[in-house]
User: Fold General transcription factor IIH subunit 4 from Blepharisma stoltei.
Amino acid sequence: MALLVGCFREYQELADAYSDQAVVMGIFRHLSHIAQHFLMTLIFMEEIDERHLVRFAESAQEAETVTNELKSLRLFLEQGRCVKVNPYVAFQIKRILSQQVVCSLRIKTKPDKRRPNIEKIVEHFHISWNKIIEFLIWRTRTPSISILQLLIRAGLISQDSQDFQQTAESFRFLLKPTQHQICQLLRQLLVSYQDRAKTAIILYNLSIGKIGQDYSVKGISHGLIADLYELGLIYKYNSKSKRFYVVPQIIGILTNSPKDNIITERFLVVETNFRVYAYTNSELHIVLLSYFMRLEYRLPNLVIGFLTRESVCKAFRDGLQCAQIITFLSNHSKNHSMPDNVAEQIKLWEMERSRINDQEAIMLDEFVDLSLYKSTLNFAVNCGAYIWDNQERRVIILKKERSMPVLQYLQHLDRI
Assistant:
């Protein structure tokens, strides 16, 4: 669902995308259960008064939330006080109920004499994807201009003169499961092409493609094929090849339930004393752990570190959030969870940061008399520059960006 939200500029583009079964099936499976219930209930009805939708929910608020969710994707269309299911969507759902959904990409008629085995296809994905991840971390192996622009639009890197800088969003991106990373870049890939409906149809059909089946590049833009190949999401022998294969990592990523897509490598043991054992020799894993841990020892296939206040707070300053650190540790933990006291302490460290806010300010003191102090204080409050004051010491603290009118006021009085 998230792939399409906000990607289309007008209704007709979305309607064109909904002309394909794979798109509708993918959107439907990513809806909440109650939204799916609404949709299935109403596909055989012409329209219904929006106020009556509360009958299908536990509360009026839930009905309103679900209705807004369906409207945002144009699955529900408004007609005065009534709503109805988008006719394109209703038609495709009825087809899906009566027949199997198959990939609509062109299949090569001639057999491939050089058909690659599954190991070669998977290896291509890991090599290509790791190049992207390594570039985000170490700025090595600069990708093509098209992929660079994709990463910039996604907010994963920023360009300063000739250098590329890592962003806070990049830190958050690297801690996500690979499946979520792929979805995030696919969304950026979708909005970067002029014909978004056709691009969406291709991406969703890749998600229901068949492993080992060779598909034709005919009808797909050269730029999209090149981008998908560089990201490792399709396999080709070379740039001139007229056929391609989908990699297992993209199968089902857009058309299965989100919970079915989460596959993570479990290599961590988190102890109640904040010690973390990482059974890995992956440089990528070690770099990710160093974002929020103090690494102490490195042995063959084992890294030992501690979650400390300093290391976690540094991660917060770099843009990571408490929930992201906890989710990363839980997803990769061999025990499928982490100690409650460790999770609670990370939350407390994040709460510490929200108790104090720093702000540039200007302090005014040494007022010659109380009347000047009070008139200046009133002026500062009225113009929105006031932060704090102490009448006993005759001190006023002003917001730096709004202090100029107050200073001009004092200069006008010629008593500063």
Observations:
- The chain has four domains: 11-98, 118-256, 268-355, 361-413.
- The mean pLDDT is 88.
- The two ends are 61 Å apart (CA to CA).
- The chain has 17 helices and 15 strands.
